[in-house]
Every structure is written in C-alpha cells, then in structure tokens.
Here is the input.
Amino acid sequence: MKTLKFTFLPVATFVLMLLYAGSLSAQIQFAGLYAEGEGGAAWDADGTGSEPYGNGHSDIFYYTASRDYIDPTSSSGAHMLDILSGFPLFEKALLENGFTAEQVTLKVALASLGDDIKGIDWFTIGNMHYANFYPVKCFIELDGEPLVEALGNYAIYSSGPFSQGFESGYLKVCNISGFSTESARYVAAALMTDLGSDELKIEMDVTNAAPIRGNGRTGCYFNLSAVITKGVQKLPFQGLNSNHEGFAGWDADGTGMEPYGNGHLNQLYYGASLDYDGIDPNPAASLGHFINGSSGFRNTLLQIQYRGFSIGDLKIKLGLESLGPDIYGEDWVFENGYHSCNYYNRNIVIEFNGEPILTFRQDTNKLQGLFGISHKFSSTSGTGKVYNISQNASPEAQFVALSFLKDIGSHFLKTITSDLRFHSSFSSNGRDGALYEIQAGELAGIHEQATFIPEGTLSGVWTTANSPYFIDGHQSIENGQTLTIEPGVQVKVRGPYHFDVQGTVIALGTADENILFTRSNPNLWWDGFDYLNTSSENQASVFDHCIFEYGYGQGSEIGLNSGGAFAIYGYDALSVSNSVFRYNKADLSGYYPPSGGAVGLWDASPMFSKCTFYNNEAEYGGAFFCFEQSDPVVSNCLFYNNFGTYGGAITLWDNCDGIYINNTIADNAGEQGGAFYFYWQSNPEIINNIIWGNTAVEGSQIYFTSMGPSYPGFYYNNIEEGKEGFHGGSSVEYLFNLDADPLFMGEDPNPYAISSESSPCWNAGTPDTSAWYYPQYLPATCLCGSQRFSDGCLDIGAYEFMMSTESSPGHFPALTLKVKPNPFTDNLNIGFSLSEKAAVSLIIYNTVGLKVAETDFGILQAGDFEKIIRLPALNEGVYIITVRINNHLLAEKVVRIK
Here is the structure.
C-alpha cells in the first residue's frame, strides 16, 4: 500500500527554520494539528467517490486538500498562531474588533498532480523528490466568515530524508468578504491594504498523522505548520560588460541600420542589449544572465538543475527600443534635478543555453537618473505576457520554457533595473553612444487588470472587467461568429495586426464610455478592421461611440494598403455612428495607391453617422476613400484637419455614388481638392453640407478630373467660393446652394457649430417638401446633441444651432426617443413623451433609405407612451426608426438580430 514517507519534524523547529530564512519578510504563522481537528489530507481515489480516479506515483498520493474538505467534523486546515511582521493594519483590525489570532483560519481547496508526467510535473534530484499539485486555492476566514481567497497555479511538494512540505508560487489575493459581517469586512479590508500590490506565498511543513479510508479514498491525514509570506515573484539578473553583457544606448545619424534619431539633453535616442546588430560580436553577448536569489520560480530552478545546467545558462536579450516622439511633458520630464524618460516598444527574448525559448513585449520602460551625476540610472518597465517560442529548440530547452510558464501562471512580467551604470563610449555604423552595465536587475511577476490576446480567432464578449485588451497578433472573426465589445473597453494593438472580420462585430459604447481602438505605444501602428467579401448572411456589424486612432493601412493583399481603421471590400452591412477617427493614415505603395487615411471602401456601401474625422492622411482621400461602386451614406459627420494629396477629406473614384448629407467639411488640405476629389463617373448626392476653409493648389474645395467625367448633385450646401471653388465640374447640378461665411463658433467644445441665428446656415437646409429631404438618413440629434428636426426646418452642416427655447404651443422641449431592446429580435419598445396633444407616426427605413415598415398612431393626448412594434419579418441588419410628432422628427438606429 502506498504511504507518504513523512519524517516527523517538530512544528516549532520548522517555524524557526522559516523565520531564519525569511526574517526580513512580512509573515503570518499558522498551525494545524490532526489531534485538534485540523491539518491536511492526501489520498488516491478509485473513482467511486467524489473525485475522479487518480493514482499518484511513487509514494505521492494524487489528491490533497485541507482536512475540512473530506472530514465534516473539521472546520479548517489550520489556525493563525501569530502575525510575525508586516501586517500592522490587519493585526490592529483584529484587536479593535475583539478577535483573537485563533479565530483566523486557513483552508486549502482540492488540488491534484494533474497529468503527473515525469520531467515536467515531477522530478527526482539526488535524494529529493518534487511534485507539482494544481491549482492552489486557499481561503482565510475569520470566525468562520470568508475574508480573502488566494489563487495560484501550483504548489510544489518536496520530500527527502529530513523534510517534507509544500511551497506555493505567489498567489493572487482577492477580497471575498462581501457577505460577511461588518467587522469581518473591516478586517479583510485591512489585510488587503497591508498587501498593497504584493501577493502571498505559502510554505508548509507536513508530518504524518492518521490513515484515510472510505468513500473511494485511500490516503492519510497530516499535521501542518505554515508560514504565509508577503512579496512578489522575482528572478534577478545581472549584465556586466566583462561578460559581454549589458545595455547600449546611442544616437543615430541615419547612415546605419536605424533612422536618424537624436535624443534630448544628454539622453540617447536608441537602446538595445549588446548583441543587437553586432554591437558586441561575441556569441555570448546579451543583456544579462539570471542569478541566484529568485522567489516564485521554483519550477524553473528545479528544471534547470534536473537537466544538468545552472541558472546562469538562462539569459535575457533586448531588441531595439527608442524614445519615440520624445516630446517634453509626454515622453520625458526634468524636475528637481531628476530626469526621467520613456523608452518604447521593448521586445525581450529569454534564451536557455543559447536557444530562444520565451518572448514578451513591454510597451514602455521608464528610465530615471540624477542628471549629470555619477551616470547611474534605474528603470521600471510596463508589463507583458510571456509567449513560448521554444518549438524548434532542443527538448531540454522546451522543458525549461514550460517550467518557466508554469511558474508565471497568470502573472505578467515587468523588468526592474535598480542599478544601471555607465561603462564606456562607443561609435560605429552611424551610431554614437555609450555602453552600460546592469549591476542589479530583475524580472518581476505581477497581476494587473489586462487581457493579452495572441494571434487567433475571436468570438464572445469583451468586458470592462477584463479591459484593456492587448492584441499580440492578427485576429479573425470567422463566418457565423460574433465578437461583442462592451462600453468602456480599451483595445490596444501591439503591432501591425489587423482584425479580419468574416463574421460580425458589435461594439456599442456610450457617450460616457467610449470603446477605444488604438496602438499600445507610440512606436507602433495597427492595421485596422478588414472586411473582405464578408458574407451578407451574417448579422450586420455595428460600431457606436467608438474611437479609432493610429490605424495604418498595411495589408499586403490588393487594396488593403488603404483604410487605416477600416478597409471594406464587397460588403455593405456595416454601420458606424457617434465615433471618432483620428491620427490614421495610409501611405504604403501597393498595386493601388494608398487611400483613405481612416476608411477605404471598395464596392462597399456602409453607413457612417455622427462621426468626427480629423488629423487623418493618405495619398487619395485623407480621411475617406470610395472605389468602384461604393455608395455609402455619410450623414451628420465632421471632417477637419485631414490631408490627402488628392482629396483632403474625401475621394470618390470610379462609379461611386452614395449620399453625403448634413456634414461639415472644413479646414482640410490637399494638392487637388481640399474637401472632395472626383474621378470617373462618380455621381453622389451632396446635400446640406458646409464645405468651407479647405485649401488646395487646385480646387480649393472640390476637384473634378476630366476623366469620366463625374456629375454629382449639390443641393442646399454652403460652399466657399461656390462653383468658383471647383476645379472642373461645370456641368454638375448645383441647386439652392450658398456661398457665405457659416459663422462657426471657433471655440471648444464645438468649434464648427454655427454660432447664432445670424448664420446663413440656420434653417437653410432642405425643407420637408424638398425632393432631397431624407430624414431616414439623419439622426435625431446633431453632433452637439441638439434636436436635428424642428418645425420642418434643418440647419446646413453637422450641427443644429444650439438655441435654448421655452415651452410654447406646438413646441416639444427635450424630445427624446427611447428604443429598446437594441439589438432586438422580434419586438421593439418605442418610448416617447408628449407635453401636449400631437399627431404621431412611425416609419422604419433600411440603410439604403427604403421604407420597410410604418405605423400611424393617430392623435395622442399629452403623456408618456411606450408602443410595442412587432417586426418578425425584418431581416437581420441595421435600420433607422423615425417617429414624427407633429412637425418634429426623431430618429434612432437599431439592429435586428435573430
């Protein structure tokens, strides 16, 4: 029969050993004796009881837990003996609330040997045996009430001639006292405050106590003595130039590998480890090697020892980093004699015996030093997720990588350099800089709120609880799948990666909680969303209240060098509203020229409503580009400060029509067409737009090529210089347009809103009797939130004049339309309020402006109303709900799903 080979070691002796080993650490001492109804349990299971079959190896039982897990007479595994140091608030809270140390107890949930594979889950080294139990879940309670739980990946059981026990990795601690009494919650909060950003590690000695038999289990109970230590996971390293290790920093004149880069003050622009591009050609060159003194990396150390190597065979290398934009106040500061700056985009590789096994990226590294004194610096990086790259390495290296990842668990890594010192100067290959030694550095494992996504497929829901989401590779949403993104989520892309959408994305933010799509650091650009012939059988994609920034059209397929945020080919069922596009670009040459700094369309007709485009750039269409039969609806949008060589804001190329209604297009620039550029039979309807203040060498506002030609219609616009501001286009239909200063407000928060009733744009848009009156394409409110429709009158541009009014007959102040649920399946609830009797009707349009349903509610008395509309026959997609109340029109976009 299998028995645990426990050697009796008195509890007091073990505690003294732990205290001696960690006398400077913050510690809490626990004990659990079988004779007192506590302790632990270990057993094999035959599968007839609560646990699946599990039979350990050698003299190690397969399962373990604290005694209370299997013995109903036991209340815990151990009780607290003393707080030895480092938890003053916890200790004070216990005393203030009348609790004793014995009332604090420890429980350990079920853990097992897992796959139980020799060489990765367990080792024998000399006369010591080591085995991993997975996972670790501990509970600290107070008088039977939950305080906190501590979660981790593993605990290592070790047994030898003189000691047996468990050692966990560092455990993430969470407050679980929410339903406990007020006094227990107070004590839990004190414990969490004492912990701060630290975590807990448990070291436990065990001695055999009594056998376990019954309920499909065979094993034994054991006494335990434990010390819980506060700290963080760390793996120290050192990099001395005498070992061909360390850090190089330099400025570059542009004649070598790196573009020109000249730092500020005496700070060098570029940095890397000595192995980078042969700065030190020695094969052993690196940033540094790991040394003794680690905590929380027990599996890694055992694996290295088991394979016959030493910790110094594990090395770290740093790829090229730089100061990025190097802007004072954002990227660096100089205060009170101290200088600090950010280096960006650190790619780190860990090698074992010369073979790359692991990698992680850190977006920032903050370097600090006392300016001009001693040339000594310190630094702390951001965090990164560790990825395994050992697939082509030797078996020994692969096992070390797996053990390292086991130690890391759910931690992310940051680098901390506490002592970086100048060693010598160097100059070569267009570089002029210095070499530095790392006297003391470490990798630290931490937990923080973040989710890292490697390359792969996506579906499901992204939540604010798991935000930000860091994207570490190309992503795809497959046909028939949906990715839903909650309000407030931040998506930070860590390279030139794109989202290939063959299914659906639903990203519905709110005015208070936008959804952000951006890069993770200033040295990177991401590659936006690609829709390439996405099946129309999928539910429509909807983006609302989103921000798209630093997208860069980088795709290698034809056309995908366009559209920094969106590149859409052969797909219409996309709607983007209440969103911002900024700092996006397309400038990479390909089969077609780079086009559409923010949006590039090809045979695609999506809808963009209440969006703002600024500081985007491309060769064609600084913000927006349409190619070959693209007929979008662009409604109530603002375009400003965009640049495109051909079309500062918008370019239409080759049979592109569509509707551009109630937009403000101002202060954009290009060489041909400051606002619009038209090529080859592109004939959109351009209605109620302000086109003003744009500049270009030819066609300050609008440029027409002679190829084609194009015949768009211009109706009820305000265009600077009128047709005189056009280059070409003499035969276009040009009706009811103005050429008068729109009188922009010129101040934040809405500098392009019209400033008064004196503006020529006030009430000068299409009347409701016009052939170009398209309420189905306009939202209920303008960009600033003012009601879009009032008494049958529209203002020209993206803003309604922000006029305050008082209630009067026929006037309905603060009219709002509430539509729920959204998205909906069969039924819609339409809510609105009337301050007086009014005629009310409803019309539903699809995104191409076709009426698909209508209802006349007749004359309704004053009051609050909620009407239920059944729409089971509608296809999946985006629709515009319009409700007319006398002469007032409210509109809301909805999404039909099944």
The first strand starts at residue 26 and ends at 32.
